[in-house]
Amino acid sequence: MTIHFYSIITTEGLGNTKDGFHSIQKRMSGFHASQCGFCTPGMCMSIFSSLVNADKSKKPAPPKGFSKLSVSEAERSFLGNMCRCTGYRPIVDACKSFASDVDLEDLGLNIFWKKGDKHPDPTKLPSYTLGGGICTFPDFLKSEIKSSLDFNDASISGPREGWYCPKSIKQYYKLVNSGLFSESSVKVVVGNTSTGIPELSAIVRKDKGIEIGAATSISRSIEILNQESE
């Protein structure tokens, strides 16, 4: 239920043999970043999400063919992923090749230029479109969400058992205090910002500091704090 109304892009949606491969997948291959292949789909999607998030930032536009991702951000992209084969170096190199501040001479063995080249040519890397290139939300899901907004409104007249989707803090408290169930029988699930409670993921700048919603991810919080400290 927590992915209800979500549009999910898998590694096959990123690129495949029928429609062609994404530049992430091509660079993973070109930097010899896949051996047994077990971790490769997850690594590709981690790189993709890092690129999309970086390109949404207010950083200056990067050189053509690169993203707004920095080398330090690229190195942190895999903190939640495990690889038992490569030692991570070629995977990190594949990701760093998208970074706007990368020194191409520091990258490891690859098929795009010869080892020892003093001036590697970035145009030989598989081309990259700023923003990731494929993040489109399906029209049918937009229609489904729109038609459900009035129907599923945290009504308190329903049965004691079921899935309730309050869309504001006010609706949440109304539901909890309705007497339909005891607090011990309720499991609160944080869904998402589109069909969940936006206030819980909001970040508000105030005179005395920054108010961060309880459902805001750690990575998003770090990003905002870094921006404010600059």
TrEMBL record:
Residues 10-96 form the [2Fe-2S]-binding domain. It comes from the Eukaryota. Pfam families: Fer2_2. One of its GO terms (molecular function) is iron ion binding. InterPro entries: 2Fe-2S-bd, 2Fe-2S-bd_dom_sf, Ald_Oxase/xanthine_DH-like, FAD-bd_PCMH-like_sf. This is [2Fe-2S]-binding domain-containing protein. It comes from Oryza glumipatula.
